[in-house]
Amino acid sequence: MGKGTSLIYSDRSDVGRRRANNQDSRSVLPPSSPQQYRTRGWLFLVADGMGAHAAGEMASGIAAERVPLVYEKSAQHSPAFGLRRSIEQTNAEINAKGESAEEFRGMGTTCTTLVIVPRGALVGHIGDSRVYRVRDRTVEQLSRDHSLVWELELAGGMSREQAAGAAPKNIITRSMGPHPEVDVDLEGPFPVEEGDTFVLCSDGLSGQLEDAEIGLLASELEPREATAALLGLALVRGAPDNVTVIAVRAGPEEVSKVASGEPPWPLTEAPATAAGRGSLPWKWLAAAAVSLFAALVCIGLWRGDGSAPSDSGLAGAVFPVLAGGALLAFLGSLVAAFIGFLSPVDGEVRVLVPGRQLGKGPYRSSSCAPSDALVERIVASIESAAAGLPDAERERTTGILSSVRRHAAEGAFHEAVVAVAQAISIYARAVEQARGDTVAGPVSEP
């Protein structure tokens, strides 16, 4: 079994270009030992809050704090059970907080989590924050958006482009907080291979970058450089919303392994009953009573006058067989009733056996193989945004973009992407400087 020690990750968040405060939150819960990795693994979370004033920021903050804590306590049942329990319980806490004061009423948040354990990668989510997996020049969306756009597309009759044009992109159909109970989507576990890169992000990133661009930067750069480039490219394109991203790369210790004879994962908890027993199995008791009555009737008919059994005629041939069968049914019903009394009766514990998966993901798949066209789209965005930079930064950016095009023309796409990240970092630093420099003023919008 893997120890979970070769995984590397990076996480970043930014308020964006048009928001006064950051309502996004994120958290990482690493395992403290190989044993803890085997039982609960790594947990990564991104939450995008919604609500007036500071309500959205509070909702996402509660999710980022409470989900990992509840998960750690509940994962002893199974990672899938713990993940669902942690999101459901945190949802109830956010809802209670929202009902406690008028200024918090209706507050909510998305919550997208990734758990990596020896059996694979498990996703639990609500809302439209996303989890991607990048492997072999392909980027796959492992989570499903709970948004009006996606609902229109899944309902049929509309293409992705038509659905996007028919409804606002920011209307979500499910979130944590507005209601006491919430339906949690669980996906996976998906097999993990060495070098797999997972990206969690709020819609502040996925709304500005194409899936192929996310996959390109995440696969060609190390997680630290990838998160900086992904967030920076969102800033290049205006970043009208808060932006949060976590990049996770699996190493050899995280390659999925399912040991022979490994027990199934419980998905539900056995109903609590007095002394740990189920309720009385009345159907089996009724069957036992009917069987006993039938046995007594057959014995009575067999005995005839009640003094001695009749060994002649039909009674002597049939009634002993019927009486014996009824007695066996009586005993079988009693055994079934006893077993049912000791077992949970209302909804047996559901389990997930090794090798099976929850959900229907991946939901979308795109090629993120490097190409002139893909690199040029990113270069064009940077070039347009760089027009608003001071002369020195603009000239430096222009020189770097020239080298990007040269590398791409030569087929040296890794070098091209590394140079793209350098150009993006120049613009991102200029944005940061403009935020704190009242004299220079804001950087021009691209």
Largest sheet: 6 strands, antiparallel
Which class of the largest domain in CATH terms? Alpha Beta
Helix coverage percent = 40-55%
Low-confidence stretches: 272-278, 438-446
CATH homologous superfamily classification of the largest domain: PPM-type phosphatase domain
Helical segment count: 13
Strand content: 15-25%
> What structural category characterises the helix and strand content?
alpha+beta
Detailed description of the structure:
The chain has three domains: 259 residues, 4-Layer Sandwich (Phosphatase 2c, domain 1), CATH 3.60.40.10; 65 residues; 77 residues, no CATH class. With 446 residues, it is α+β, with helices and mostly antiparallel strands. The radius of gyration is 31 Å and the shape is elongated.
Task: Give a brief rundown of this model.
The chain has 446 residues and is α+β, with helices and mostly antiparallel strands. It has helices at 34-39, 55-74, 79-100, 148-154, 160-166, 203-206, 211-220, 223-236, 282-303, 313-342, 372-386, 391-409, 413-436, and strands at 8-14, 24-29, 42-50, 108-109, 111-117, 120-126, 130-135, 138-141, 185-190, 197-201, 243-249, 265-266, 351-352, 364-367.
Features:
446 residues, alpha+beta, Phosphatase 2c, domain 1, 3 domains, 6-stranded antiparallel β-sheet, 13 helices, 14 strands, 45% helix, elongated
Task: Give me the secondary-structure topology.
Elements lengths: L7 E7 L9 E6 L4 H6 L2 E9 L4 H20 L4 H22 L7 E2 L1 E7 L2 E7 L3 E6 L2 E4 L6 H7 L5 H7 L18 E6 L6 E5 L1 H4 L4 H10 L2 H14 L6 E7 L15 E2 L15 H22 L9 H30 L8 E2 L11 E4 L4 H15 L4 H19 L3 H24 L10
Antiparallel strand pairs: 1-11, 2-3, 3-4, 3-5, 5-6, 6-9, 7-8, 7-10, 8-14, 10-11, 12-13
Helix pairs in contact: 2-3, 4-5, 7-8, 8-13, 9-10, 11-12, 11-13, 12-13
